[in-house]
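Standup notes, protein team

Yesterday: finished cleaning the Streptomyces avermitilis set.
Today: Acyl-CoA dehydrogenase structure.
Blockers: none.

Input for Acyl-CoA dehydrogenase:
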Amino acid sequence: MDARFTAEQDEIRRTVRELLLKRWGPEEVRAAVGAGAGYDPALWSALAEQLGLPGLALPEAYGGVGCAVTEVALACEESGRALAPSPLLATAVLAAPLLLALGTETQRAELLPRIAAGALTAALAVPGTALSLALGLVGDNRGNWAGGGRAGGVQARRAEDGWRLYGQVEQVLDGHSAGLLVVAAHAGGFARPRTLLFLVREGAAGLVRARQTSLDVSRPQARVQLRDVPAELLGDEHVDVADALMATGDAAAAVLATEAAGAADRALERTVDHVRQREQFGRAIGSFQAVKHRLADVYVQVQAARSAAYYAAWAAGTGPERAGQVGQVGRTERTERVGGLALAQALEALRTAAAEGIQLHGGIGFTWEHEAHLYFKRATGDELLFGPVHRLRAYAAERSGIFSLAGSEEVAV
């Protein structure tokens, strides 16, 4: 394994960072999250049209660039540093891989070029608070989390004109503004219970969406109500939805881990700059040994998280079934899934870096005017959506067989 980035990968990182440094800062973040969409359409146009970020991991046949998960992760690392709100995660990391893996050729040809061009945003709607479970990050995702059979979640039923959905979904990332919803619904009743994915277009009759208050304002979320909404089945009834969601979840966790590592690195940078300038007892507080030790511990944790995230992104983009095409995820079993473990480490590093930043900034670090709290909320919000950390690690340990091996050794003794 060659751990060095290619010239193209370094260029992606440099270009995204330069654009965000030039056009994005704390004040722009506050202005964007207060807008109706929850992000700046002008910035999204620049990211999509000038840099082509939504199509980085999509095949060239559908208007994409044909890169792998690593390139998406590097771009998201820079957006994480700036805490730039955009539909990139919901569209390119969660929804587009499912369209590519499960969709019919007609569905791919219609939707993916528009996503790659930034003309269409999409969101994954998973019932309840089961997003991390549906993605296979904290448990086996082959249960009835989509509806439970009789009530709750989202139910799908056949109609003369196709399929109809009814139910409610909370915590849908960018669900209030997405032009396309990929909805997980329970179908088949008790006789043949199964989870299927459906496409719901913007403006569909019976679709009601409302943006909700969220802890992390840079991750806008929505409540989606489906009142006998016409829907289109994604792919066919025989696709392996659970495996596709798990493969998407592994890649998404790797991207999220890299994004969190970028945010943690930026939070640490801001704190180091502050302690070099803030003085107590006639000297900069950064010269105190206790402060140096605290920041050194944070630095080690951030670098370890970044290494784990890079490896997870590389692992998610390789494997026997993959030759640079994200569309093949979910069709065969990948030998290694380490995204959840990398995400746990990165979220913990971000939470630590943000907490230390708040403490070492002193009184100003506790104010709404300062941006330190935004990084702490990003760590906490992502943990609520995709974690928590202890469950990410517990499931990774369970899948690796650590507990069973430990038990067998104990019995042998």
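Follow-up from PR in the comments: The CA atoms of residues 256 and 331 lie 23 Å apart.
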